[in-house]
Design goal:
The complex is a heterodimer. By secondary structure, chain A is mainly β. Helices cover 0% and strands 57% of the residues of chain A. Classes of the chains: A mainly beta, B alpha/beta.
Chain lengths: 166, 189
């Protein structure tokens, strides 16, 4: 399947966008990757959202394949990683997470949608660390999001979450 | 018994909230919510909308309650899914001593206390009344179940006795549900 290149950033409603630059606010379009590879002129990237706690600090930015991002919080911190992609064949991507602390309850979700209409999603109350493999379909344009949080149920101390794609 | 300070609630377009209790259909609720909202929200907001929130905002609550022994067996299977192995006796020892705290084993009646302040609370037996709860909440009740436990443990008579004793409040609560959507008054716990 031949695919015209989208991007360099985009979303399902607009597949050609310039890179997001104002990371003081939630990005509404995302880097468009070539499956798990770098484009000749654009390295693989994912947007991250790091929220320390409800009403607390929230950080947006980008990171690369295999690189961890982390956040700590005392109530309900979470990490969300988002990217778009094009792929001539289906491929697997791993969402990795580690949570350290005590007395917390994690939830993990992922979701993808392609411009051709393929969708899937997943919800789990996972272990404190692990890897969730997501099988993504071939597409001319796809959107992928994964989310991990840690709900502190004793209100004491803090919990730290780290997450990455690989 | 472990108590939570506050629960986590899915907020539905119908105005209800669903209290999240692990091992009571959470994955199906999430998938139903995400499919219901897929066309209505920008993609970057969809995930957050479908994640349970800490506040119930005094909305009427829908709550699925599961037979505590079945839930315990499902939870044992869940925490042993990967390379870790925690024995049934090890879990029971930890629960009884208060040293093992895992969301899958939290008391359902304790979680239910998080609905304090909700306009109303309606109870449903899981899995028997689960589709009715989703229907009452305005969600698609025919979402396939993806997280089904593969191999639940068979409890010895002594283990089952300990589970029944540990979850005696939950058993009373589960047995009190005579019909789907039965109103629950928190003062009665």
């Amino acid at each position: 399947m031949a695919i015209l290149r989208a991007g360099p950033w985009g979303n399902l409603n607009s597949t050609h966008e310039d890179p997001w630059t104002d990371f003081s606010q939630f990005p509404t379009h995302y880097p468009v990757n070539c499956a798990k590879s770098n484009w000749p002129n654009q390295d693989w990237k994912t947007v991250y959202v790091l929220d320390s706690d409800p009403g607390g600090n929230i950080y947006y930015g980008t990171t690369s394949l295999g690189a961890n991002v982390g956040i700590s919080g005392s109530i309900y911190p979470y990490i969300q990683l988002i990217f778009c992609y094009q792929a001539t064949q289906g491929f697997d991507v791993d969402f990795n997470w580690t949570i350290t602390g005590s007395n917390f309850a994690p939830t993990l979700t992922w979701d993808y949608e392609t411009i051709e209409g393929d969708t899937d999603s997943f919800f789990n109350t996972p272990a404190n660390s692990g890897t969730e493999t997501i099988s993504l379909p071939a597409t001319t344009f796809g959107f992928v999001s994964a989310y991990i949080d840690a709900y502190k149920f004793d209100g004491l101390g803090s919990v730290t979450i780290q997450a990455s794609w690989s | 018994m472990s108590r939570v300070n506050a629960g986590r609630f899915w907020h539905l377009k119908s105005g209800f909230v669903i209290l999240m209790i692990p091992k009571c259909g959470s994955a199906t609720i999430f998938r139903s919510l995400i499919e219901a909202n897929r066309l209505n929200y920008n993609r970057h907001k969809l995930m957050k909308i479908c994640i349970p929130q800490r506040q119930h905002e005094n909305k009427p609550a829908l709550v699925a309650i599961r037979d505590p022994v079945e839930r315990f067996k499902s939870a044992v299977s869940h925490v042993n899914r990967n390379s870790t192995h925690i024995s049934v006796d090890g879990i029971l020892d930890g629960l009884e001593s208060g040293s093992y705290k895992d969301q899958h084993f939290m008391s359902q009646s304790a979680e239910l206390s998080a609905c304090d302040g909700c306009e109303s609370v309606k109870l449903y037996r899981f899995p028997f009344d689960f589709e009715q709860m989703l229907f009452d909440g305005g969600l698609n009740a025919k979402i396939p179940h993806k997280n089904q436990s593969i191999s639940k443990p068979i409890l010895t008579d002594d283990q089952e006795r300990r589970v029944v004793e540990y979850y005696k409040d939950d058993i009373k609560l589960f047995n009190s549900i005579q019909k789907a959507g039965q109103e629950f008054l928190l003062e009665s716990t």
